[in-house]
Amino acid sequence: MSNELEKMSTLQKTDAGVEVRVQGDVRKEKIDEMISGCATGSHSCCGPDFFARVSGIDVGGQDGDVSIHVKGEVTEEMIQQNLANCDCYKP
After folding, report:
1. Per-residue pLDDT reduced to its tens digit, 34-80
2. How big is the chain by its Cα radius of gyration, in Å?
3. pTM of structure
4. Where are the alpha helices (DSSP H) in 1-91?
5. CATH number at residue 60
6. Quick one: which of 10, 34, 61, 85 could link to 45 by a disulfide (CB 3.0–4.6 Å)?
7. Structural domain harbouring 65
8. Exposed, middle or buried: residue 51 (CB in 10 Å: 0-12, 13-18, 19+)?
9. CA distances from 31 to 15, 36, 68 (A)
């Protein structure tokens, strides 16, 4: 499955976890809302098993170029799967 969020995203492993860079027709405010919903378990793309491995999520950047820093014992593959299953990002 693919969606707009997945198509706009690139991933890079960092020392602290994984950075997701979302570029294009993306609003930082909407990414913040999406992350908040995921963290509370109200979205199905990021389950409790995933969040058990996450020590923090920071969102930075600006409209058109947003960075999501997922800290913890997460892999690019885990993030890619979450992006592919994401139906919670509403532009």
Report:
1. 888 777 766 677 777 888 899 999 999 999 999 999 999 999 999 99
2. 12
3. 0.87
4. 4-8, 28-39, 48-51, 76-85
5. 3.30.1360
6. 85
7. 4-85
8. middle
9. 23, 9, 9
